[in-house]
Amino acid sequence: MLRRYLRLAVTLLTLTGPLAPLAQAAEVNVMTSGGFTAAYQVLGPKWAQATGNTLHTELGPSMGQAPQAIPNRLARGEPADVVIMVGYALDELIKQGKVRADSRVELADSRIGVAVKDGAPVPDISTEAAFKATLLNARSIGYSDSASGVYIEQQMFKRLGIEAQVKGRAQMIPRIPVASQVAEGKVELGLQQVSELLPVKGAHFVGKIPELLQSVTRFAAGVPTGARHTEEAKALLRYLAAPESQPTVQRTGLDSVSSE
């Protein structure tokens, strides 16, 4: 146990440099979307404790019309030193000159899963045919307003040939975790990225949808051009992407980025 903590301390010092004196500690403003939030909520405090910095965190989707969406927060001029979000949404902010291109860091890959209410019968989603039947038999289906939900609505239902059959029973759920609606009994079948399903109490994680139907979402992070604490932000991103952080990333339902 002692060796493990010593390795963590060495890792943090390597990634962040010497611990900052408290008088010089920075409050790093972070905006993060749901998919990486569970991992960030574990790793972020460890980084803050080791460096003496503090983290101020705002949650919001990577895209969409909700006021809490990260692009909309930035457009309003809300302070941000780090943004953690879906990779292609981050790329759009880089194109717009709102995030520094040289700051982009790959964090994790996320796959879509299924949840039902605790105590409900567990459906079969083990094959494409079984998953299709489960969707057709569900009284109601919920999916997110972020990357996974856009894929489900615009592509997956069409690929399965059930777009017309589920119309009226399938709905996009903005901003809040889909599994929270499942836990409350408002939606029978919830589809969202695994890392967003797992933390919700009252919902049972069934498993990932069949790989042939998957849409893998890359989560990445960057430093906005208006960041006030650029060096601290870069140090935080190095830590989140470090090999030593990957066990935590994987425990939250994400897949580590494969080395290419």
UniProtKB/TrEMBL annotation:
Keyword Signal attributed: yes
Signal peptide: 1-25
Protein name: ABC transporter substrate-binding protein
Presence of keyword S-adenosyl-L-methionine: no
Cross-referenced PANTHER family: BLR4797 PROTEIN, MOLYBDATE-BINDING PERIPLASMIC PROTEIN
A matching Pfam family: SBP_bac_11
InterPro entries named in the record: ModA/WtpA (IPR050682)
UniProt cross-references to Gene3D superfamilies, sorted A to Z: Periplasmic binding protein-like II
Parts of the chain that traverse the membrane: none
Record SUPFAM superfamilies: Periplasmic binding protein-like II (SSF53850)
Swiss-Prot/TrEMBL keywords: Signal
Organism: Pseudomonas typographi
